[in-house]
Design a protein that fits this description.
497 residues; five-stranded antiparallel sheet; 18 helices; 35% helix; flavoprotein; FAD-binding protein; FAD
Length: 497
């Protein structure tokens, strides 16, 4: 493992047999996995470059069991790593050698479908796509749709604030989640938000969504569902230059048009996706835009004409407009299968996740090309063009000495570039361990300390998912300590509480 994790507590490891026995008493039957062979599937998440077997895996089925497991671990000083479906691409669910891996895979029930309030109450182990399938018969769907939606769980979506191809118009997870049930490290169960769009007090849902398992374990989620639009059609537009495609994106948004989705792929990604899905992508272009417009039929027809004119004005070389639902889905099938498609042309790849202002897209892509030459590694680019969320796929072979290290350095430089261009380190995959040590590129020490104070309010002993997000994790007592120099307090005129 090339990345440092918290040192294992040997005293905890020495008590492993007793810990396993205590956990079996809380979660009986097949709820505890402790053999090395059976724990292998849990040694990594979607970021498979880093692996670490857990001390023990626990698979509770009820909120009460989650509460009792966390309470026991809190009292015994045992670290806990929550895990959903394990599709995280930032190492957020990477286990700890001295920690309990708490899997929520058995929380697979949809508890309530409320069409009157247009919400679904679901357990966290339900897949993203399953929510849409459960309400499709009534003409509703759940808007966020990450490419892994067939496998990723809604609890993991909340942890990472996942997006998807339709997040430009309909928002990320945080814009579509109204409430949750969350269990703190102490075992206390809280209910936050609910079926109403607005709730009294602080916006704790906004805090929990995207908190990467550092604040609590989500055991129930209330999500907003939407009526399916009357019409949805997609354009597939090719460009001879990536910069022209970037200009087209900017002009469409500048014209006041907000597509349901707007995605871009560069030539390596286009070729990989076409060979995998056979979606009819043009192979003689440098960049491909997939632009979906939805709403009333008359409005969609009007917007398609306007978008086509904008694309022609930017020098598009090809333009194909879907004429059926099957064709629209085929356009998207190639984009949604881009990650596994690239897996067919490279033994390994790292999927990055930086976000930039839309106007900086040409500069970012030019910089990625320069870095590709510098590190002598290929790179396929797939990204949410509308909101500037880049997903460069760095191609490497872990069996070749030094290639993984070069891929890591390449990825770090891409993320630094995103920050330099006015963007951020992550758009939807989270920080996890992948971007943890780059946090100082974006935040000052004061910023990071303030963020850690929020964690301390929820998890004072720092037992929940330690080693993630923060490059240096301070003890909560250290963060609250007042600095005294020369026997004098700083700013003595300020009131002290």
């Amino acid at each position: 493992m090339a990345i440092m994790m918290p040192e294992a507590d040997q005293a905890v490891l020495a008590r492993r047999d007793g810990i396993v026995a205590a956990l079996r008493a809380i979660v009986p039957g097949e709820g505890v996995i402790d053999s090395a062979a059976e724990m292998l599937p849990y040694e990594s998440d979607g970021l498979m470059a880093y692996r670490q077997p857990p001390m023990v895996v626990v698979l509770p089925e009820t909120t009460r069991q989650v509460s009792e497991v966390l309470k026991y671990c809190h009292e015994q000083g045992i670290k806990v790593v929550p895990r959903g479906s394990g599709t995280s691409l930032s190492g957020g669910a990477l286990p700890l050698a001295d920690g309990v891996l708490l899997g929520l895979g058995k929380f697979k029930r949809i508890r309530d479908i409320d069409f009157d309030n247009r919400v679904v109450v679901t357990e966290p182990g339900v897949t993203n796509l399953a929510i849409s399938q459960a309400v499709a018969h009534a003409g509703f769907y759940y808007a966020p749709d990450p490419s892994s939606q067939i496998a990723c769980s809604i609890g993991g979506n909340v942890a990472e604030n996942s997006g998807g191809v339709h997040c430009l118009k309909y928002g990320m997870t945080t814009n579509n989640v109204l409430g949750c049930e969350i269990v703190l490290m102490t075992g206390e169960v809280l209910r936050i938000g609910g079926k109403c769009a607005e709730n009294a007090g602080y916006d704790l849902m906004g805090l929990i969504t995207g908190s990467e398992g550092l604040l609590g374990v989500v055991t129930e989620v209330t999500v907003r569902i939407l009526q399916k639009p009357e019409t949805a059609r997609a354009l597939m537009v090719g460009f001879a230059e990536v910069e022209a495609a970037g200009e087209c994106v900017a002009r469409i948004i500048g014209a006041g048009i907000i597509p349901g989705g707007m995605e871009m792929m560069d030539k390596p990604a286009i070729h990989a996706a076409e060979a995998f899905v056979h979606a009819g992508y043009p192979l003689d272009v440098e960049a491909l835009l997939i632009i979906e417009l939805d709403g009333p039929g008359v409005e969609v027809d009007e917007l398609i004409g306007r978008v086509e004119a904008i694309a022609n004005g930017c020098g598009s070389t090809t333009c194909r407009i879907s004429t059926s639902e099957a064709e629209r889905n085929l356009f998207w099938a190639g984009r949604k299968a881009a990650f596994p498609a690239v897996g067919r042309i490279s033994p390994d790849y790292l999927c990055m996740d930086g976000t930039i202002p839309r106007g900086a897209l040409p500069k970012a892509l030019a910089r990625i090309r320069e870095l590709s030459e510098k590190y002598q590694l290929g790179c396929a680019n797939v990204f949410h063009a509308g909101d500037g969320n880049l997903h460069p796929l760095i191609l490497y072979d872990a069996n070749k000495p030094g290639e993984m290290e070069r891929a890591e350095a390449f990825g770090a430089d891409i993320l630094r570039c995103c920050v330099e261009l006015g963007g951020v380190l992550t758009g939807e995959h989270g920080v996890g361990i992948e971007k943890r040590d780059l946090m100082p590129e974006m935040f000052t020490e004061i910023d990071l300390n303030q963020q850690q104070r929020v964690k301390c309010a929820f998890d004072a002993r720092g037992l929940l998912n330690p080693g993630k997000v923060f490059p240096t994790l301070h003890r909560c007592a250290e963060l609250g300590r007042m600095h005294v120099h020369g026997g004098k307090l700083a700013f003595p005129d300020l009131p002290r509480f």
